[in-house]
């Protein structure tokens, strides 16, 4: 259990920090890449935390996040396309 929680913490610190950096700085397309990267990182982090705490009922959260982050990026791409 502690190993899974530690792996989740490492992923949060190591992979989410560059995603937040991209989301805060740069052009609109770079911010969109940061958003997609954050979504891709948070899904395995939430899966690790779900298994680490032993709450299988929380599995729906990362699965819904995976679908919604992809759909959100498609919406933002449509908005970016109409602006340029």
From TrEMBL:
Listed InterPro entries: MrpF/PhaF-like
Stretches of the chain forming a coiled coil according to its record: none
Membrane topology: Multi-pass membrane protein
TM ranges: 32-51, 58-80
Localization: Cell membrane
Record keywords: Cell membrane, Membrane, Transmembrane, Transmembrane helix
Pfam families in the cross-refs: MrpF_PhaF (PF04066)
Record bears the keyword Transmembrane helix: yes
Chief place of localization: membrane
Record protein name field: Monovalent cation/H+ antiporter complex subunit F
């Amino acid at each position: 259990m502690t190993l899974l929680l530690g792996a989740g913490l490492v992923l949060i610190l190591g992979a989410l920090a560059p995603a937040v950096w991209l989301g805060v700085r740069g052009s609109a397309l770079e911010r969109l890449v940061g958003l997609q990267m954050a979504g891709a990182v948070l899904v395995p982090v939430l899966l690790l935390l779900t298994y680490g705490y032993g709450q299988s009922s929380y599995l729906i959260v990362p699965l819904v996040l995976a679908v919604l982050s992809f759909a959100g990026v498609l919406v933002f791409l449509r908005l970016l396309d109409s602006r340029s």
